[in-house]
Design brief:
The chain is of the alpha/beta class. The protein has two domains: 86 residues, Helix Hairpins, CATH 1.10.287; 133 residues, Rossmann fold (3-Layer(aba) Sandwich), CATH 3.40.50.720. Helix content is 57%, strand content 9%. Strands 3-2-1-4-5-6 form a six-stranded parallel beta sheet, with helices on both faces. Helix 2 packs across helix 3 and helix 6 packs parallel to helix 11. The chain is elongated and about 85 Å long. The protein starts with a helix and ends with a helix.
Length: 235
Amino acid sequence: MRRFFWIRLSIFLRQSRWGFALLALWFALGTIIFYSFERLSLRDALLNALYLRVQPGSLWVLYAFWGQCVLFGIVISIFILQALQRYNPQEGCRMLASEMKDHVIVVGHSHLGARLVAHLRQSARAYVLIDKDPAAVDDLVRAGEPVVVDDAKQESTLVDAGIERANLVVITSNNIETALLVTKRARERNKKAAIVVRCYLDEFTEILESLGANEVISSSKSAFNEIATHIGTAR
């Protein structure tokens, strides 16, 4: 999870922006109040508003009391937001996936898909896994990995996986309908990414290539080694 620290921090700051904006507004209001009513210099007014200096009097006591209420409300709202994400880890993983760029999208947590994900994690490559079976990806979700638990055939799923910013799409699903639809929609959304499809049915090779697949790997080939080569070059 540490390798996604900056992405998670970016998500946290974006989610908490209204809380920080309210906090900044409160400090600005406090500065104006102390400057206008206590006749303090702008610097002293700001220090009082930031609770770095105490101005004796009822005004500061009132400001301090309401300031505690505002700060408490902001902290509680941020805490609740983080707690909700922990309660629904799939949503947190989906948000992380949506922030990826120059990454590999793996469609399907099949035996081959699982090997590819393990390879990507070990080599610290940015990736997103798409699979609609929560049980199949439960360990990855618990680990906070960039996983989209949804049907890859839905265009919104590909968008959440950052299809426009991916540089390689690997389709390992055993479902030919999924392979066809994902290939078509991935190519429509991303003209530059390499698309590699694992297909057991050789008769669909030409169709997949016509839809935008750069390479279709049949059951007669060593799929993992072929795809690993693409991963090494897609940087």
